[in-house]
Model the fold of this input.
Amino acid sequence: MLTRDDILKQIQRVLAELFEIDPARVTPDANLNSDLAIDSIDAVDLIDRISRVIGKKVSGEDFRSVRTVGDLIAVIERLASK
Amino acid sequence: MRQRPRMSPTRTGTDLRADRIRSCPLISQPVSYLWRLAGTGTSFLLFGLFGILLGAVVFPLLRLAPMSRERRRNLSVRLVCWSFRRFIGFMRGAGVLSYEFRGRERLGRPGQLIIANHPSLIDVVFLIAFTPLAGCVVKASMWRNPFTSGVASAAGYVRNAPTDEMIEGASSALQSNQALIMFPEGTRTTPGKALEFHRGAASVAVRAARVLTPVFIRVEPLTLTKGQPWYRIPPRRPHFSLVVGEDIDISPFRANNPLPKAGRALNQFLIGRFSSHQPYN
Done:
């Protein structure tokens, strides 16, 4: 079972790899768009990667309400446990 | 004593007014101006009528015909292509515009992403008319416009929003070997401003294009730009020049790069390629 901390670490790793974002800036409060400069096109690439990491097909719909890294952790937690 | 010819140091208001009147096409060449105005109006009317006819009569009838979705879509796309060609033929014949389209035989290859700059309202009509079996990424608002919604849905065009659905739709069109037209500026060019491309087209290209082909469009004098009403026609008949450029090799951008990086790099490359080809100021 993944803990929220594990998920955060994974997100930090993926964001560093895809967008070269310093993991220290990736905190649960960080806003993906305004703090980390991830736009809607980056989001598509990010969601693709998440889908591959958790090994499940996910859709953009699941992520519509995501604003912060914390929201993202919550959605991944829900999807991974389904 | 010899009189020295001199430029008049000040010009009177009457002179200026006379100049303005002389340069107004309605005064200097009233017949050709009014003819082009009427022709432009008729073109818009025809376009709207055809859009309604296809959307309200032809495509609904086609839906009743027993054939596969794929065949129906292909037939619809062919019909749109044919009508757009007639439409351009009409505009050229009526003297509303003139055009040259170089290299168009290289449009319409399987999995080909065609990207073009977007100076004028009718760029998309040209590209669809001359690309066999073309798909196109178009504004989502086209589905709400009664003149265009029938065409957009029957031809299976891809909505530009939301972004994730656009990228998915565009990629799957290319992967199923369609040719797809995209305007990376997203909307018509603002004259005088530096060129800006949304990354959507570059992102679709690195994901799914088999071939990437630029088309450079130039309109002289500029007409039907963003926010310009149809009756604001230019002083001379506009000439459209469309040039199909060399294919762009995507593989170096894809190599060893995660998608976001590849997309950004390709987008920068494309901006450079189009800026150097087009006078934007």
About this structure: The radius of gyration of chain B is 22 Å.
